[in-house]
């Protein structure tokens, strides 16, 4: 509270100032306690979440929660620093209040300098405003962290995602096989088309120019060269087809060998299983005979 000119405050005004400072300190303490309570609530929820994760065995959720927990630890560290800062400021304010009370008790002739009161009031308001801002920032970070934790999918959702991905993978594999077959058929039809076009063109050329070409030696040579070129092209095509056929035959032979080996292994397993079953039957018979002998011996001993 200011006075006109260079007047000074009365003894009632310092008391009001002390009351305001104490109220500010109580407000800061209440905010710190509220923040501690929220921190404890967040820790309890995290502990429940850890127990749930350990019970359900959600590895992916744990991997996603690790950075969130690190962020929470950083927030706890920052919160500890803010609390230390607030405690230090509160101690300073309490010291200022104590000084004011002493000065009021001593009186200084019933008056306190206005400049000191203004400085203390401005400092207290600044500290209170900064503490409120820091508290609001921490609360926003805690709320954001809780939302991120809530966004982590549970085990049932992960199982649904995995099942859906498996179904999509099967569909994609089927479509891929169908596409490969269609492309193979398309390429084969293109080659057949090229061969038929060449054959048709050759037959048309021969039919239209045969009489003219066959009558001269140069025409006959040209016709023979043309036929040889066609034969070379056909042989090249035939070579490519034979190479493809050989590769397919190799794959077929490899598959047959694998099938033969698997069938032999299966027969071997059946043989071993049958022998094992026979031995188990013999063992059961021997056990029954031994139990019968033991029973008869015990009866003889009793008699």
UniProtKB/TrEMBL annotation:
InterPro entries in the cross-refs: CCDC93, CCDC93_CC
Domain CCDC93 coiled-coil as annotated: residue spans: 21-289
GO terms of biological process kind: Golgi to plasma membrane transport
Domain of life: Eukaryota
Protein name: CCDC93 coiled-coil domain-containing protein
Coiled coil: none
């Amino acid at each position: 509270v200011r006075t006109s000119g260079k007047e000074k405050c009365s003894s009632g005004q310092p008391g009001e100032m002390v009351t305001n400072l104490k109220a500010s300190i109580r407000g800061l303490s209440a905010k710190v306690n509220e923040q501690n309570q929220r921190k404890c609530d967040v820790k309890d929820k995290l502990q429940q979440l850890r127990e749930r994760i350990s019970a359900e065995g959600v590895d992916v959720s744990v991997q996603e929660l690790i950075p969130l927990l690190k962020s929470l630890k950083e927030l706890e560290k920052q919160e500890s620093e803010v609390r230390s800062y607030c405690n230090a400021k509160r101690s300073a304010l309490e010291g200022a209040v104590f000084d004011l009370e002493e000065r009021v008790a001593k009186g200084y002739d019933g008056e306190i300098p206005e400049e000191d009161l203004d400085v203390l009031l401005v400092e207290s308001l600044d500290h209170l405003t900064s503490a409120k801002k820091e508290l609001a920032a921490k609360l926003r970070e805690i709320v954001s962290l809780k939302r991120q934790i809530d966004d982590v999918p549970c085990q049932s959702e992960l199982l649904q995602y995995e099942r859906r991905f498996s179904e999509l993978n099967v569909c994609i594999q089927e479509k891929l096989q169908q596409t490969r077959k269609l492309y193979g058929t398309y390429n084969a039809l293109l080659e057949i088309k090229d061969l038929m076009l060449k054959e048709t063109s050759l037959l048309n050329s021969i039919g239209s120019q045969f009489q003219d070409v066959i009558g001269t030696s140069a025409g006959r040579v040209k016709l023979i060269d043309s036929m040889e070129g066609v034969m070379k092209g056909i042989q090249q095509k035939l070579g490519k087809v034979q190479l493809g056929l050989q590769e397919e035959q190799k794959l077929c032979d490899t598959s047959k060998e694998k099938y033969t080996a698997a069938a032999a292994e299966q027969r071997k397993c059946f043989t071993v299983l049958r022998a094992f079953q026979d031995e188990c039957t013999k063992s059961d018979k021997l056990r029954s005979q031994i139990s019968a002998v033991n029973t008869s011996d015990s009866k003889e001993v009793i008699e």
